[in-house]
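Let's study today's protein:

:::
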Amino acid sequence: MITDEKTIDALRKIFKQIEREPNVEPKMARKEDVKATLFFELDENMPERLFKYQIWFIQSNQTAIIISNNTKESYGLLDKENAQTLENISPNK
């Protein structure tokens, strides 16, 4: 569980950099490297929303593929720099 504000801010910036491709349903050849559940407060008068992410770190080009259960996000790619930062933050690695 990640709770410190500095790491949360870093994650927030990284997730804004994901190049999204909604309505794509990829099939991955291997199990994800990291599973993450993020809590979002979309409206202060509503309960927080939970979104689940599966993350694959692609060693050949040092990028990452991220799949979300949020239909607006679905499938996304993360560039080399942000993928490396995310991999360094990931508690499962």
The chain has two helices and five strands. The first helix runs from residue 5 to 16. The longest strand covers residues 49-58.
